[in-house]
Amino acid sequence: MADIVRITPLKAFSDNYIWVLHDDRAAIVVDPGDAAPVQQFLAQAQLSLHAIWITHHHHDHIGGLPALHAQWPGCPVYGPPAVSGVSVPVMEGSQLPALGLDCQVYEVPGHTANHLAFHCGQHLFCGDTLFAAGCGRVFDGSIESLHASLQRLAALPPQTLCYPAHEYTLANLQFALALEPDNPALQQRWQRDSARREQDLPTLPCLLAEELQHNPFLRCGEAGIRRTARHHQPGGGNDALGVFATLRQWKNDFRVS
């Protein structure tokens, strides 16, 4: 029988989380932008590095790979093809061993053209595609593919736990509240997650069921969100994709208080 798999967030830089799946012996690390917190955690917990999963090529997600490879040269690095440091390219439908669990790879482009997500049981490691109450910016992907990727993730079981790579929740909730200032569910979540951050606790993982209720980027078909988007940018689009594009550009320019 497999050991119980636990998931631990490691802080990196100003707002990154490096997620570690581990049992009592081995660990899988997701998006190690910095090697130091990973090395410290594994040493303290006396764990070996079993594998590394990479969602996309941005430096804050892969910067720790050279140092980790030097310490664990045989450790496989799974990720998108052509990403520096990836030793085992994976793509849509790839199946990965995950400490006795099964993991399926999804292609979820948009933030970048080659972005992946790793779905392991009820756990979804979504990198910079889906955030708590928000979504990633478009860099070398497209707004159309980002919208489609988010719709795909939204169709997963509501009890899915999502593990984004950044602590952006409060900034995203401020934007969501600017769209729906009288939404009591958003107000309650703001109070809950603000209290967690005041204690220096993560607001993540986030429950997909809550995202379906609170995240404006997953609710572009709702009448209230559409009205707000059209008021902000008249003629910006009446379908869900047009509303999504309006919201994403609005969020790009939005300044948190």
UniProtKB/TrEMBL annotation:
GO terms for molecular function: hydrolase activity. Keywords: Hydrolase, Metal-binding, Zinc. The keyword Zinc applies. Binds 2 Zn(2+) ions per subunit. Residues 15-166 form the Metallo-beta-lactamase domain. The keyword Disulfide bond does not apply. InterPro entries: Clx_II_MBL, Glyoxalase_II_hydrolase, HAGH_C, Hydroxyacylglutathione_Hdrlase, Metallo-B-lactamas, RibonucZ/Hydroxyglut_hydro. It catalyses: an S-(2-hydroxyacyl)glutathione + H2O = a 2-hydroxy carboxylate + glutathione + H(+). Its EC number is 3.1.2.6. Monomer. Belongs to the metallo-beta-lactamase superfamily. Glyoxalase II family. This is Hydroxyacylglutathione hydrolase. It comes from Vogesella fluminis. The lineage of its organism: Bacteria, Pseudomonadati, Pseudomonadota, Betaproteobacteria, Neisseriales. The gene is gloB.
